[in-house]
Design a protein that fits this description.
Blueprint (H helix, E strand, L loop, with lengths): L8 H10 L9 H13 L5 E9 L1 H8 L1 H19 L3 E7 L2 E6 L3 H19 L5 E9 L6 H22 L14 H4 L1
Length: 184
C-alpha cells in the first residue's frame, strides 16, 4: 500500500499524473492522452482550446505561491462552471487552461467564448488577461502535438491582437484570431 490511493505504487503515480494537484483539473499528460483518444475515435468533430492567463505567473511571484495556488484554484473552478459539461478541462501549464469540446467549431465557439468571459468577469484580477486559441480536430491536426501547436499559434495571434488594441495596458480581452471566422 502506498498511503495515497491504498493500491499499488504504480497506481498512485498514474493517478497523480492524470490530475493537476493545484487546480484538480486534468494534467498536461492527461490532455495528451485524451487528445490521442479523440483523434483516434470516430465521432463528432472536436475543438481543442488553449486559454492563456497572462499575468498569473507574475501574480504568484509578487503575492507568493499560496496566493498563486488559491487564484489558480479559483480560476479552475470558474472555468469548469463556465464549460457546463460541454468539454473536458485541463491545466496544461502554470498559466494555461485547456478544453476539448466534443462539438463542431460553430457549436464549440459560443461555449469557449462564455468560458473566456467567465474567467474575465468572475475569476481573474484586473491584471490577468485571458486569450485563447483553437485547433479543429481532426480537420487541422492528426496528432496531439500538432493540435497543441496549432492552438498555440492561434493563441499567439489572439495575444498580438489584444496587445495592438491596448498597447502597454493589461486588460481582460477576448479576441478572435484573424481568419478565425473562415475556419469555423
Amino acid at each position: 500500500m502506498d498511503g495515497i490511493t491504498g493500491g499499488d505504487p504504480g497506481e498512485s503515480r498514474r493517478a497523480v499524473s492524470e490530475v493537476d494537484p493545484i487546480s484538480l483539473l486534468g494534467s498536461r499528460g492527461q490532455l495528451i492522452d485524451d487528445l490521442e483518444l479523440s483523434l483516434e475515435a470516430d465521432g463528432p468533430s472536436r475543438v481543442l482550446a488553449v486559454f492563456d492567463l497572462a499575468g498569473l505567473y507574475e501574480y504568484r511571484t509578487v503575492h507568493g505561491v499560496l496566493a498563486g495556488d488559491d487564484l489558480t484554484d479559483r480560476l479552475a473552478r470558474v472555468f469548469v462552471r463556465a464549460m457546463k459539461n460541454e468539454g473536458r478541462c485541463y491545466r496544461s501549464r502554470q498559466d494555461e487552461l485547456c478544453a476539448i469540446v466534443d462539438a463542431p467549431a460553430d457549436k464549440a465557439r459560443p461555449v469557449l467564448d462564455a468560458a473566456a468571459a467567465a474567467l474575465r468577469e468572475e475569476g481573474a484580477p484586473s491584471f490577468v488577461t485571458v486569450s485563447f486559441g483553437m485547433a479543429f480536430l481532426p480537420r487541422e491536426a492528426s496528432d496531439p502535438i500538432e493540435a497543441l501547436t496549432i492552438a498555440d499559434q492561434e493563441l499567439a495571434v489572439a495575444r498580438r491582437g489584444r496587445e495592438r488594441r491596448q498597447p502597454g495596458r493589461a486588460h481582460l480581452g477576448l479576441t478572435m484570431a484573424e481568419g478565425d471566422a473562415d475556419r469555423l
